[in-house]
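Recap from last week: sequence in, structure out.
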Amino acid sequence: MKNARGAGILHHPTSLPGPFGIGDLGPQAFRWVDFLAEAGATIWQVLPLGPTGYGDSPYQCYSAFAGNISLLSPERLVPEGLIAEDDLREPPAFPSGSAEGTQEKSKQRKSALILISRRTREQSRILRWKHYPVGMR
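Predicted structure tokens:
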């Protein structure tokens, strides 16, 4: 069986545009895949998607199984109820014309959103717990 020929591109999701400093696996990634399909591309090759290690190198992952937290899409966490839509209303302002420090600011922003998510889930558990009858707690 012969393999069909195909065309594609090497493009890491962090290179996609987005309001949080670096690209992630959110709405822009879906638009990117739609664009590739419309253009006739059949392959989207990415660099490793694990947590970056020394020097933010994707080849210095400290885990072969964990995902990179910077690739989490805050916009996709809203429908899941993990963060509130209000938390996304004012994305951070990044300097134009320079990527210097952008990735670090993006990581800080996304880390803050993850903490908000954890706090929200914990508050939700506490509220549900309070609704149990006293004898069942």
